[in-house]
Design the sequence.
């Protein structure tokens, strides 16, 4: 099982405790540089960037840029990378990172061919590494480390884990949670693609045993059976922390792709009804609106007191 | 994208999968010519990128010229699940012994290709009984697996050979074209014991289009969809009267749900992508102005980093340039929202503090 907090935070005896190094792949592109700066402003320890052909330069006068991931990893010993390259170059960038020893790869690009994702995942499995995404806003421990593109305002440190397929809904719902006094211990963007490096069940396994976890929020959407699998896993594991879900796409027509490559209902496969009924079976209330999430969570907490 | 049956069959033919004779047309004049070439009896099949055609009357047997003249236009005029006929396929009548089911799909949770087969095909997948499910990794189906599938379907001799052959060709097609789903339902055992694909479904992974220029000819996009794609937006046209715009697919879906819960009818789903700029919002309004039936626009933007004043500028510019003349009901989360509200004073755009308020106003607004 992936010790996600070990990767993101480390142990108090580590010399880089709470400042784990992150390498940004595609740091000189418009998108990569914007978010590299934002991550640095948030406090993330960006130790290197990689852009082939730009090795030897410095980003923002301080972060060294390398031509390859191998060079960047050799120089920094970082175990985390975030990828901003265009979708068609994702597989190459991911291989480069995994071969160099990266253990946590956050894949931001949208429109990565599914086959490329599956190949990257195959390699990650062999190397004992984790991929978050593609098509994810990223992963963060609020007020400590942000590896992604999320704006900082909605998030606050706390004890609720938020797992989400959608980016903007993650912001929206975290914002509502924060306003209601529920800070977040970790937020994980699963991504909106059909195949996810870290599925909802994998993300659940990463967070379920957190000692001070007080609750969990799952933000799902139509398409696939990730939510159903998660509900089953929650039932099987006897997980009893207050949990609330939200599912987007109830009103979406069938057989139409709703923006995300993965958001499509085929027959009954991937339908909102199927997901809601599985969550109900797991005794997890499903909010009708994002704003209802903190209300339901508070209700659940009261009952469990 | 889901291909039409005749397009899927073109690919099947290319990969050597057995098919009945068939010809597609888009008007009755061509249809008449094809009817002569093909000879009666045949089946008239509507070509739409959705399932459930038979139930909706989109598949009709045709015995002679008189029937043809009645049924061809009938089928051509059908709308199935909101989809109008893109073409009509005339296909020779089949003399069937048994209907099977066969598909290969991208298994999202197992992250590999997976075969589903059954000796009881011809009905929708949900109702297919005794499904044989086999995960096959990322490569083509091996002889062993293909033979195993045929055996578990209870087939022997020529029937088993035919299914093994079809399955291997289907898997080659799936892998080489990077399909998300390829389905033959029914796959028929004919009276002469050959195996034939009577229907064909093919769903592409659009994200791999850049590697498949050969599939480009199947891309059927309306002018407005093409423009949306060029701007990096996702657009799904719907049949209501309130256009729904937002940033991020999840947020727009969520807005659609809430609008429907409150009795509103969405005219479209328009996701302008993660960020929102004056240009992208202006472009979105331009697109919506080209949709018929729209009486109002519901905008839900979670800005985060975005200044709402930037979005307000887009609305003002769109009115000034006469791009739109519609009321806009907007919820803008972001910075400087007070100034944005001031900027829009006197315009047809109203800003609301919550999405619920914006939705209620939109539903009421289009009634008048």
Sequence:
């Amino acid at each position: 099982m992936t010790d996600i907090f070990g990767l993101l935070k480390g142990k108090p005896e580590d010399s880089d405790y709470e400042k784990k190094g992150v390498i940004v792949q595609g740091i000189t592109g418009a998108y990569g540089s914007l978010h590299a700066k934002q991550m640095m402003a948030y406090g993330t320890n960006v130790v290197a960037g990689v852009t082939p052909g730009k090795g030897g330069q410095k980003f923002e006068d301080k972060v060294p840029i390398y031509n390859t991931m191998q060079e960047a990893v050799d120089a920094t010993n970082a175990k985390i990378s975030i990828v901003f390259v265009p979708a068609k170059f994702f597989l190459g960038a991911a291989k480069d990172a995994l071969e160099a020893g990266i253990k946590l790869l956050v894949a931001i690009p949208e429109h990565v061919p599914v086959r490329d994702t599956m190949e990257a995942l195959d390699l990650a499995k062999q190397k004992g590494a984790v991929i978050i995404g593609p098509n994810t806003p990223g992963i963060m421990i609020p007020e400590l480390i942000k590896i992604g593109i999320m704006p900082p305002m909605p998030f606050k440190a706390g004890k609720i884990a938020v797992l989400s397929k959608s980016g903007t809904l993650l912001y929206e719902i975290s914002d509502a949670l924060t306003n209601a006094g529920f800070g977040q211990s970790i937020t994980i963007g699963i991504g909106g693609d059909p195949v996810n490096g870290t599925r909802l069940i994998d993300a659940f396994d990463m967070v379920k045993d957190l000692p001070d976890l007080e609750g969990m929020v799952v933000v799902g959407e139509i398409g696939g059976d990730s939510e159903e699998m998660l509900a089953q896993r929650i039932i099987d594991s006897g997980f009893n922390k207050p949990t609330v879900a939200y599912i987007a796409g109830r009103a979406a027509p069938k057989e139409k792709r709703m923006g995300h490559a993965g958001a499509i209902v085929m027959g009954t496969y991937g339908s909102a009804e199927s997901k809601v009924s599985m969550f109900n079976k797991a005794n997890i209330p499903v909010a009708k609106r994002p704003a209802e999430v903190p209300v339901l969570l508070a209700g659940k907490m009261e009952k469990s007191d | 994208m889901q291909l039409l049956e005749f397009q899927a069959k073109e690919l099947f033919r290319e990969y050597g999968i057995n098919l009945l004779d068939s010809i597609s047309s888009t008007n009755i004049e061509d249809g008449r010519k094809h009817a002569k070439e093909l000879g009666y009896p045949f089946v008239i099949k509507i070509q739409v990128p959705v399932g459930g055609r038979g139930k909706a009357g989109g598949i009709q047997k045709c015995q002679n010229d008189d029937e043809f003249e009645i049924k061809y236009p009938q089928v051509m005029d059908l709308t199935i699940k909101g989809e109008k006929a893109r073409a009509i396929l005339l296909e020779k009548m089949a003399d069937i012994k048994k209907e099977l089911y066969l598909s290969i799909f991208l298994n999202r949770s197992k992250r590999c290709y997976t075969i589903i087969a059954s000796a009881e095909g011809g009905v929708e997948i949900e109702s297919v009984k005794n499904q044989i499910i086999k995960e096959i990794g990322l490569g083509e189906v091996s002889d062993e697996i293909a033979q195993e599938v045929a055996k578990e379907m209870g087939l022997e001799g020529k029937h088993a050979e035919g299914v093994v052959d079809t399955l291997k060709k289907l898997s080659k097609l799936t892998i080489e074209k990077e399909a998300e789903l390829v389905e033959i339902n029914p796959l028929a055992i004919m009276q002469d014991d050959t195996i034939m694909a009577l229907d064909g479904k093919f769903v592409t992974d659009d994200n791999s289009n850049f590697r498949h220029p050969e599939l480009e000819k199947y891309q059927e996009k309306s002018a407005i969809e093409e423009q949306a794609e060029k701007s990096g937006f996702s657009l799904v046209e719907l049949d209501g009267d309130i256009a729904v715009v937002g940033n991020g697919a999840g947020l727009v879906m969520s807005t659609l749900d809430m609008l429907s819960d409150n009795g509103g009818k969405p005219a479209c789903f328009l996701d302008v992508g993660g960020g929102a700029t004056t240009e992208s919002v202006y472009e979105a309004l331009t697109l919506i102005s080209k949709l018929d039936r729209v009486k109002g626009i519901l905008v839900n933007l979670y800005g985060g980093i975005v200044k709402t004043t930037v979005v307000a500028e887009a609305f003002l510019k769109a009115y000034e340039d006469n791009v739109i003349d519609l009321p806009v009901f907007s919820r803008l989360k972001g910075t400087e929202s007070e100034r944005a509200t001031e900027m829009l004073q006197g315009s047809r755009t109203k800003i609301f503090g919550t999405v619920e308020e914006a939705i209620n106003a939109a539903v009421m607004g289009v009634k008048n």
User: Anything to note?
Assistant: Chain A is about 35% helix and 20% strand. Chain A has a mean pLDDT of 96.
